[in-house]
Every structure is written in structure tokens, then in C-alpha cells.
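call fold(seq) -> C-alpha cells
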Amino acid sequence: MFIGEPNIVSTSLPTIHLDLLRAENVTESKKLLNACRTQGFFYLDLTSDPELCKLWEGMLLRMKDYFEQPLEVKMQDARGSHNYGYIPVGTEPGPKPETKDGYETLKFSRREFLKGSADLTTAVRSEADYFFSYIKHAHNITLMLLERLSTQLGLTGSSRFEADHADPGPSLSTLVLLHYPKHNDATAPTNVGHLKHTDISTLTLVLAQQWGLQFLSPETNRWEFLEPRPGHAIVNVGDFLRFKSGGELASIVHRVIPLKERQDEDRYSIVYLIRTNDDVSFNDSTGKTWTAKEWHDLKYDVFTSPTTFDAKGQILTAMMEENDRMVVREGITS
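ret:
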């Protein structure tokens, strides 16, 4: 956390049950829509799917094995891509002044899954089928969530959210494996967390067993930690779904920081970002038209150098926040 800030834990996030959504339960689908309208985040109870929970544990074991390798070995998987390969700690600015980010990542593009190959150098290549299996599960779940939202909103035909994600795409949907290394107690941390942003996604499905994720609560206008719960994913609305819904669904600003000033344990996070097909277009809250790929590419440039590409500080948080305060959302009346 930042010095002087209290640790506030959110108590407002609803829990949505995967089994009820799969059964097309109307009440649960309405809860889903309300969560996406108001909080932009919700817990997704996965305990009805023991296969998926087992896959989660297997993913963690493989992640730990991978990230424990020497840096020079992992760098063999660096591809200079936002969607594929290895990226070391400290590539982007951190959430605090004079810091860099505090995580390393290994990414798998869904494009690689669709063609059935992983162009990686290290031993992780032999585990690609395991990661691809998770991509299949996560993609099917997030696509189903979009179907339930479309139905609740009365959308039909090509206006339904899932229509923008039809294979073969192409799209930039990506599985991101993140490791936030434990800080050395002897030195002041210069690599800390993940700076505030909204997601370049339609929906984001997050599996994490350690604390660190915060969102800027739309109810209280303060930073609140989201408790990691066994057997539960955290799902949030991304920029694409917010813009495609005309602002009715909320893409909320969030970040990752340690509970204390230092990262006192290794933190692992499994993140699947389902994204619309590259050529799908939408208008942002100012009325400017973008394709999904244009927004994706610009926002990743901003992540790398915010002051260069986003002098007004609007892109990273998709015009949802100013000076750690929520702004009035388009498309919402109360």
C-alpha cells in the first residue's frame, strides 16, 4: 500500500454462481447484469466445476516452476509481443513515483491455441497443451457470460456481445501468467505492483490466491482491496464491453499493490482477457471511433510510457478516473 493509506477491504462485490449461469438461471443472469452495471467486478464461484479448480492448481505448479528459472533462461521466450512470450520485471512504470512495475509475465495468445502450437524455447513448451486447456475453459466461460448479458439486455443478432468474438477472428484474446516476486528485506523496493488502469478486454477472468488487487470503488470512491477467495475467480468488465454497451456496463479502474509497503510473499495471478475481434469498432466516451486493435495497440504504448503517449492521463483509465476519483459515467442515469 502507499504510505498513509489505510487497508480497506471491499464488502460490496456480489457472488455469481457458475453452475446457475450454465443452467441459464434467469435470476442469476439478472444478478450478473446488475454486477456489471454497478460494480464492474464480481466473484464467480467455480466450486461446482472440480475439473476447473484442479486445472487452477496445476497451472500454479507449472507457473512456479517456470518463474523460478534463471532470467537468462526465461529471456529465451521473450518475443517483443504484448500477447505472447516472456516479459521481465520492470518493463513498465509502477504505481508509485520513481518505481517500475513489480511483475514478470508469460503470455499465451489464443491465436497460438487455435493453430495448436507454442513457439517457445524453454521447457514450458512441453506444457503448452496444459495452458491451452485452460485457455479453452476460460474462453468458454467468458463467452457464456457475454451470452447471458446479451440476453438480459435484449440484444439480438449481430448486436449481441458474443457476435464480436466469433472464430476465427482474428482477435488478441490472451492468457497472462503473472508473478510478483517477494521483495528483498534489505533494500527499498523499486519494482512495485501494477499501475492503475482499466483492462484492454471485453471481460477479464482472474484467478489469484494472494492479496494485492484493488479497485476504485464506484460506491465509495476509494481504493479497496478485493479478498482472494478459494474456488472463486474475480471477473471484471473491460473497456470493450463498456464502450460497446454505451457505458451501461462499468469498466472500473484497478491496480495491484502489496498489502504492506513491501511484497512479503510471491504473488501469482492467472488472467484471461477475452477480446473482441480486431476489426470490431466502437466509440469511446468522447465519441471517437476506434477498432479493437487500434485501442489495444495505443493503450499498450501508454502502459510502456504514459507521459509520452497519454499526456492528459485519459487512456490508461479509459476516461473513468481523475486524481484517484471516479468520473461521471456515460450511459448511466440515476
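The longest strand covers residues 267-274.
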